[in-house]
Amino acid sequence: MHTDCNTISPNEQRAYVDRALARLKESGLRITEPRKQVVQVLAGTRKPLGAYGIRDRVVDGGGKIDVVSVYRILNALADIGLAHHIGAVDGYLACSAGHAHEHETQHLICRSCGCVEEIDIPMDAMKAIDSAGAKGGFQRVRARIEVLGTCSHCT
């Protein structure tokens, strides 16, 4: 197993933290120490983490936070497009897009190392999904696609 795909440069981490803090402020949310701590944990990994894993990393780094607060913070970050819930592994991941999602995304999840890559869903795929749903009277609000496989570092 290789860990190269989970390496995040200090510049990438700083960029996410700066973007996240700015978006929190724009959204009218206070920038509290617990929010900063959760954002910093998310900035440092490409592996989705659950609330307990995030709490453990904050505490290991010398911080103080409870799991209920982590869940509330994660929900707020997801609501404003700064984090994604990855259902296949029941964890949260920093949004790698530098903007709010006007489009849909899919996540490529490596079954070996757990790293996740976020990519745009092609418009043709969205049209096909909408067309198939429309046949049954279904109207899409949002799409999340999670693809399990093996990343290039682990193959």
The CATH class assignment is Mainly Alpha
User: Number of helical runs?
Assistant: 5
Let me know the number of strands: 5
Question: Low-confidence parts, pLDDT < 50 over ≥5 residues?
Answer: none
Overall geometry:
globular
- Succession of helices and strands: HHHHEEEEHE
Structurally, how many domains make up the residues?
1
Q: Overall pLDDT, averaged? A: 90
CATH architecture: Orthogonal Bundle
Query: The biggest beta sheet, please?
Result: 3 strands, mixed
CATH topology: Arc Repressor Mutant, subunit A
Summed up, what is this model?
With 155 residues, the protein is an alpha+beta fold.
Provide structural commentary.
- The chain is 41% helix and 16% strand.
- It has five helices and five strands; from the N terminus they run H-H-H-H-E-E-E-E-H-E.
- A three-stranded mixed β-sheet has the order 4-3-5, with no helix packed on it.
- It is globular, with a radius of gyration of 16 Å.
- The model has no long low-confidence stretch (mean pLDDT 90).
- The termini are close together.
- It has helices at 10-26, 33-43, 51-60, 67-79, 123-135, and strands at 83-86, 91-94, 105-110, 116-120, 144-149.
- Helix 1 packs antiparallel against helix 2 (33-43), helix 2 (33-43) packs across helix 3 and helix 3 (51-60) packs across helix 4.
- The protein has a single domain (4-149), classed as Winged helix-like DNA-binding domain superfamily/Winged helix DNA-binding domain (Arc Repressor Mutant, subunit A), CATH 1.10.10.10.
- The protein has 155 residues and is of the alpha+beta class.
